[in-house]
Amino acid sequence: MTDKTTTTTGKTAKPLASQTLFRGLEVVAAVADGCRTVKDISEKTGITFSTTHRLASALVEVRYLRFEPRKGYRLGSRLVELGFMAYRESAVTTTARPFLEELAAQTLDTVHLAALDEDEGIIYLDKIGGKRAIEVNTRIGGRKPVCSTSVGKALILDDGRAAWKKRFQQEIEKGLAGRLTEDEWLGAMANYAAKGYTFDMDENVDGIRCVGAPVRDASGEIVASISVTSTDAYTDEARMREVIPLVQEVARKISIQLGAGG
Question: Which pairs with CB-CB distance under 8 Å and at least 24 residues apart come from 70-78?
Fold first, then answer.
């Protein structure tokens, strides 16, 4: 009887193929994280220099990576294509888009759509730029912490105090939590959960303020969140409170389109 990891000829084709696939994905992820040379990628992934060079060269051939002399490796055009395909096929993103545009037009501020990416914090699914003379340093596909962002807080409103405390402590350990103490943050979360909105008062980036609200699907689960983002030059606390019902109404409209009750 042959071993499960081998073929009748003694080859280990499937395990080797899987290992190669996973290593190739690690190489792509390392480049996405800013590694530009084979040496950098090898050190980041722990894959040997020779194997890293072979995988990177193969990925360049199929356009998952590109290589420029003196500049190094970058993500390739095929990944861009796949990213836009995934973006277009996202039910939440396509459903939310016109409502996000409506909210941006109402407020003149930058509007975000985000989802929870488990251990990686939140990921931005969409962004509508505002009309203010400011630059909000976020991008579709970018990631931010949960506890210091309004979209992050909105995504975990249903989790309850024990889960909130655990997540806050995890982000503290990673150096990602904002300026609030644990007790202050937990108190704020209890208030947000009761009222159905969230604030970011300069907690993630100095001078940036946001109002967020959760988006729910047919099961009533929070599947995304939205926010209006501006600077303290345009948005004092009174302005933020004016924006709350606008954000909540748009979140409600998106939720209804996803099957949630009105």
Answer: 71/36, 72/36, 72/37, 72/40, 73/31, 73/35, 73/36, 73/37, 73/41, 74/31, 74/36, 75/28, 75/31, 75/32
Return the number of other C-beta atoms located less than 10 Å from residue 17's C-beta: 10
Rounded Cα distance between 51 and 42, Å, is 9
The CATH number given to 90-257 is 3.30.450.40
Q: By the 8 A CB rule, do 218 and 258 touch?
A: yes
Query: pLDDT per residue over 80-126, tens digit each?
Result: 777 766 655 567 888 999 999 999 999 999 999 999 986 678 999 99
User: What's this model's pTM, rounded to 2 decimal places?
Assistant: 0.69
* Domain ranges, ordered by start, for the chain: 13-80, 90-257
Rounded CA gap, 129 and 137, in Å? 11
Residue type, 120: E
> CA-CA distance, 187 to 180, in Å (whole number)?
10
Amino acid letter, residue 257: Q
DSSP state, 147?
T
CB 30 within 8 A of CB 40: yes
Buried b (16+ CB within 10 A) or exposed e, 164-201: bbebbeebeeeebbbebeeeebeebbeebbeeebbbbb
Which CATH number describes the domain made up of 13-80?
1.10.10.10
How large a percentage of the chain has pLDDT more than 70? Answer: 90
Could you tell me which of 188, 166, 254 has the C-alpha nearest to residue 217? Answer: 254
